[in-house]
Amino acid sequence: xxxxxxxxxxxGVFLAIVAFIGVILLIGGNGTPGPTTPEVTKTKxxxxxxxxxxxxxVTADMVTEEEVNLADAPGGAIHLAxxxxxxxxxxxxxxxxxxxxxxxxxxxxxxxxxxPPGGRAFPLQVDQITGVGTLIKPGDYVDIVIGLxxxxxxxxxxxxxxxxxxxxxxxxxxxxxxxxxxxxxIQTILPPPPTDANGVPVTGGGVVLNGQQEIVIVSGTANQIxxxxxxxxxxxxxLVLRSAADFQERDPVTNAVIIPVDEITDGVILKxxxxxxxxxxxxxxxxxxxxxxx
Length: 294
What we know:
Layout: H1 3-26, E1 42-48, E2 63-69, H2 102-105, E3 120-127, E4 141-148, E5 156-158, E6 165-167, E7 175-189, E8 213-220, H3 222-234, E9 236-241, H4 270-275
């Protein structure tokens, strides 16, 4: 065999060896494919192990994690129990129900109202000032404070001779009172978000102080509903948000929330501000003007 042919043969053998070593390195050196990322087929979901009433703060003994097929996990489900512990549910949750993120945030639009037994649903329209920034959500508890102005609550005197009434002019007749306490919100309705030129909802950008309004639907007794209707006609109404932690104690027999005892308040008129809080009365100042020269 000629020398040139032997050289070509040796080069071919060398290249074949190099190729063989490369194949071994690529497949892991043991004749089996190298490690690959396993396909994810399982995930965890969180379920309620007891009934969780509207407005309840979730604790560790109320929920459990369960492993399910990825395809069986609903969209929006939370995957760790810790993600729900300490948060307030915005709907009634039944035993075995899967916990979703909307369980804590509420839905964008009201689709149902669950009125508690013996309660009456009543709507109140508030804005960003009178409704705590329109951040009130189902399950929250609120107090209702009202303001009456001189136009609807004038200061009057009564003539003892003929019982005629005279409105006293020039006096401040405004009156403020925390009227109803511990009223539960069972639903809220916000206007749809603004849209761009293409009709796509505009989100983000932080809070916009635009006077946005909100319908807050509360549950009350028959007497409370009468009071609220009167106030709608003749008073300025503001909602005061209460801490959810104040409404977590429940009756061991009925499981109903034990409502805190109402706090006795003073109510406020101008005289209250002066007598109790030290607001100063205006003082008349007499100024002596120089006498003009004749």
